[in-house]
Amino acid sequence: MRPTAAPYMQEHDLHPVDEGREIRSALRTLPEQIAERIYSDIVAGHYEPGERIREEALAELFGVSRGPVREALRILERDSVVRVLANKGAHVTKLSTKEVNDIFQIRMLLAGAMVRRLATMPQTVVTRFAPAVETLERLALAPDGGAAYVAASVELALGMAKASDNERLAEIMRSLARQSWRYTRLALHEPVRRQESARTWRILFDALLAGEGDVAGRAMEKLVDDSRREAVHLLESGIA
């Protein structure tokens, strides 16, 4: 499928997309900006898993040479969003059920540890996330708020990872979030699932405020594991 970016864009016209806002401030180079555009189209479903991404078409679309596009695809390959095959070009990664299980299990363990660490930080660090939790509760009630809810929940989790003062952990979690974004969005497609997720986020946040690290950690692990189970169920059922 054709990506959504406007054709004939010049290098100075490229900007980060709304989804994936958690890394907006980190964007520096043209390939990074192009990578975000491609990634946004992938998670939005404009490319199907396994579909080839053609360098020449993207170069024309963005109004750049093929060099920055090739670098952008390499950036996405590092996060396992695409796979670049010799003589076959870049293809959107198509994860097996086992790979989805594995990625979410790693996310669950790291996210739980991150939240327990965050519970030891000053309360002023935790309170800054109150508006984000309230936003999730609002989006969870919107019948068409699926994409926005997923973007906001991932951004909140990555914001907490950054606040936990472990840059390497935040970097790993960002990579895992990229790899699993499509499947997280799939798992939170139904409003009832988003409402359950928002309730768990509230439990997590209140536990952090109370300094109850284990309660908060278990809530985070539940958030990730619930998405894993739902995504795997849909994949195994052939629905996704």
Annotation keywords:
240 residues; 10 helices
Percent strand equals under 5%
* Unreliable stretches covering 5 or more consecutive residues: 5-27
Q: Which structural category do the helix and sheet elements fall into?
A: mainly alpha
Total number of helices: 10
Measure the end-to-end span.
18 Å
Radius of gyration over C-alpha positions, nearest whole angstrom: 18 Å
| Helix/strand order, N-terminal first | HEHHEEHHHHHHH
| Helical fraction | 55-70%
Largest sheet: 3 strands, antiparallel
Average pLDDT value?
85
Q: Which strand order does the major sheet show? A: 1-3-2
Global morphology: globular
Structure summary, number of beta strands: 3
Please explain how this structure is put together.
By secondary structure, this protein is mainly alpha-helical. It has helices at 30-43, 55-62, 66-78, 97-118, 123-127, 130-140, 146-163, 167-187, 191-209, 213-236; strands at residues 52-53, 82-85, 89-92. Strands 1-3-2 form a 3-stranded antiparallel sheet. Helix 4 packs antiparallel against helix 10 and helix 8 crosses helix 10. The longest helix has 24 residues, at 213-236. It is globular, with a radius of gyration of 18 Å. The protein starts with 29 loop residues before the first helix and ends with a helix.
